[in-house]
Amino acid sequence: MAYIEKRRRTDGGISARVKWRLGGTRDGAVQLEVFSAGTDAQNLARAEGFKKMVDAAGQRWPDGWVKGEGFVRPASEADPLTEPPRFVDIGEEYVRQIVDLSPGQRKRYLGHLRVLEVTRIRGSLIFTKPVTAISEADLKDWLIDWDRSLKTKANYHGLIHGVFGYAVKRGWLSANPAVGTAPRMSRVKQSRPELRFLTERELQRAVELAGPYADLLTVAVGTGMRFGELGALWVSDVDLERRTVRINKAWKRNGEDDATDVPGWLAKLLKPKHTMRDHHLGVPKTTKSRRTITISPALFTVLRKRIEGKAADDFVFVSNAGYPLHNGDFSTHVWRKLMTALEAEGIARFRFHDLRHTHVAWLVAGGAPLPHIQARLGHESITTTIDTYGHLLPAGDELISGIIDTALTGGTIRPGPGSSMGKKGKGKKSEKRTKPARDQGVSRSVEKEAAT
């Protein structure tokens, strides 16, 4: 039988605990429910009522009772007296309750919902319907008919999936209709445009035509830094003695009502000169984006000139007017003109971010290991680096062919950078047999290749 224990709390009040063995058997697991939120009399009365329910249920938890919460309506059962919300309305509720969102991300997701609200598919505004009225077929119609890139659809689908998952949690739905409808990632990757890598001549001409922004292009392609990281670079982030650049800040978009997310350590350092329209200084994209990278002698010369005579908290790169580099203004007033000038000389247009891709192409061509490239770019995962740039790795097929040929012709497989994979036998087998490849040779080399 269930029984009640009284416990004195540190504040002097009494909490009541109902204890029993599951199923009423001697070896049943001990169960416990605590009542401590009310007055002493209320806690004891609630415990007595709960004890009676346990006894009536055969020494089991009362049906529908959730430990620590009481009777809670199952998630699959919404309040029948309340009208189900529209998709866009519960979508906004979902976005606003996500904890780990920057102000800019939250604003962007809310913007996505506004786009969906006015998107008409086959004559219907699907996402203005009640969340309970949108079917899997509706979502497939949207994916098929919406005139956007596959990557954009995949991004929006992630938000839609989250909204429906939240609706399930809130009890409006018993199942998520977005499950199983997402575009396959293999198709999304195939739909992406080819990465643009600049030739030496193209880069040289772009730098020549960039005028006062020539140094910006040079440092971008020489470090692989993102535009928002370059624009946030302070003089104190450049260590000429050690020939390094520290990347610990980046420009971030403001949220609703110009909401910002500035870490405390950085807020203490900011001055009026560190402000920019619709943006604020924050931390870089990911944890590993906070990094320190080395600079070449050529970049050392460029940066030494850029920071000479400036204060430690001055920006290294600013606009012609002396203001922080605004992405939109730079694109309109500088980048478009530069691309037009290059196009007139027969050089195809490219994005500023393609300077980052070109930087990686140089590193791969020079034999830099992918883990080192990952660290330099600030990628959170080596998978990102491999998926984006793995196809640039040179001589992969030739290396594999050499390994197989060496084995088949009686040679000895020996790993080693820059060395031949083995020496072929001259008409007779080697007197000393090597250890299996998995111990010293091919397996370890291939594993190392795969890890990068």
Automatic annotation (TrEMBL):
Keyword presence, Cell division: no
Domain Tyr recombinase: 193-404
Annotated segments matching region Disordered: 411-452
Tagged with keyword Nucleotide-binding: no
Pfam family, one: Phage_integrase
GO molecular function: DNA binding
PROSITE patterns given in the database record: TYR_RECOMBINASE
GO biological process: DNA integration; DNA recombination
Annotated family: Belongs to the 'phage' integrase family.
Protein name: Integrase
Source species of the chain: Nocardioides perillae
